[in-house]
């Protein structure tokens, strides 16, 4: 008997594994397609999706529905590429429990907390997000969650995880340079450690590098250059100015990152002038010549301005407050919310914050007019900005400074993919492209605010209706 079992086991090991049954094709029938890579609109189309890819886009009257396909009725609806939030800060459950803030660590978070946060993105039509850095616990959890989503075991947007590389504040403060701590790869102040930090990020599986503003001249250049050698995209803060080892404006634009994470960052580089219109034009020209893109995060500036002027958090639109997670809810209130505190109001330059929002809007318009690639990012969950829905708010901000609706959609989808996945496809609705899609109930080209009318999403080729996403969210958040 043992011999027979051994033979059977050996035979089983020699046989090829049975393939998992193929997922049923997905059909979105008789829908208006807005591909977004051009200005064209394709009414009355039927879209066939198989194995996470768009296979065909046919006139609805000519389309053939495969046997066994899942069919979504697209009549009167609009299909656009999935939205991409190019700047978020996600607090994973494990990171919250390990927080140095006692109130955050004491929160009774449900086991499905991370899943609920991911679903809040999908519910808003956000099928990709770039997380711009946190601590080692949070990053480790998000790297794990990225793999769970990619394998189809967890519902969520595609995650792109940054390694933030920053030096000590003392290393760019003239009076403290002599006593600045010794360089390490965790807080580099020399080029070798900056390059080593990038190499360590590569080994740990990060997706891109976020250079931060306390890197001195030599270390900033080393981080950007090594990131390029390692095939990393770089998006982050511009380095501090004004000390003997700091970068200056000419140096930074001669050693450009791939992308600047806030239009606000460029304001520091405009302070060398009085920010007259001609000076803003000159700054926009520098960005254009450098080849850098920009994630303006105008809604971030608006939210901070609101807190400073009104002394309260900017209200969340009706219907979206249900997606405010417990960690963000705590961090939005005093004393955790530093923007509501007097020290923030008393800091140098705080009185200019309203002007900073105006500056960011004017500069972003000039960048757009020059063809600088713009991406939609929100800095969520900064107080007032809910994961997912804040993308809609930033899209409205961009429309209000002059972008056409299709340009807004492009900034909120294709441009993010082109930045963070330059070797992949850009997500336009075309045969052969990745099927990360949003079905809207109203025309976003007629009114950009219609991006909020999310009827469902296709993420990694799988359809989930708004009702299903709401149900899954409620289950995970309990």
UniProtKB/TrEMBL annotation:
Protein name per its UniProtKB record: Amidohydrolase-related domain-containing protein
SUPFAM superfamilies (alphabetical): Composite domain of metallo-dependent hydrolases (SSF51338), Metallo-dependent hydrolases (SSF51556)
Organism taxonomic ancestry: Bacteria, Pseudomonadati, Pseudomonadota, Alphaproteobacteria, Caulobacterales
Sequence ranges assigned to domain Amidohydrolase-related in this UniProt record: 365-461
Species this chain originates from: Caulobacter mirabilis
Pfam families per UniProt: Amidohydro_1
GO molecular function, one term: hydrolase activity, acting on carbon-nitrogen (but not peptide) bonds
Domain of life: Bacteria
Listed InterPro entries: Amidohydro-rel, Metal-dep_hydrolase_composite, Metal_Hydrolase, Metallo-dep_Hydrolase
Signal peptide: 1-19
Key words, A-Z: Signal
